[in-house]
Amino acid sequence: MAADSRESQSSRPSPSPSDASASTGKTYDTFNYPATADNINSLPGANGKNPRGPPASAGITDALKSIKIDDFKAVHKKPCTREGFLTGIGAGFGIGGIRAILGGTWAVGAFAFGSFAMHEYCQQKRRLEKAGIQRINAALDEKKIELEKKQEEKRKARRKAKEEADR
Asked: Do 91 and 107 meet the contact criterion of CB atoms below 8 Å apart?
């Protein structure tokens, strides 16, 4: 089985040397890999079904066991977390202040709702931005192919003209 997976990975096309020399380390390079017809992530002979059967359902205790202290130490490194927390703090302070004057405590609920809403809004913006980048990269790839074709046509025309001039 291991030999099969190595064979399928070795058939993956490598990027051309021109792509390697033009690599800038930017987001564009992550999408600049040549597309293949077959899925390189699938195992040979796989039909898309899990051979072990459906995954076991996870409960609350399994979820609580998966939480680690390091998750809380690195929460500020997650995308959109800062904006979510700042919006939640502002919403909690604003609603809590108004409700303190009028009576009642809604600050915690406003914080939770504001944080969640802003985090989801930020994630949606990131998804749209990523989709836009993929569209732009596809258009750039098409333009690059078109430009290469035009340059090749010009080279052929120059060669032909030079061969005719040499005769």
From this structure: no
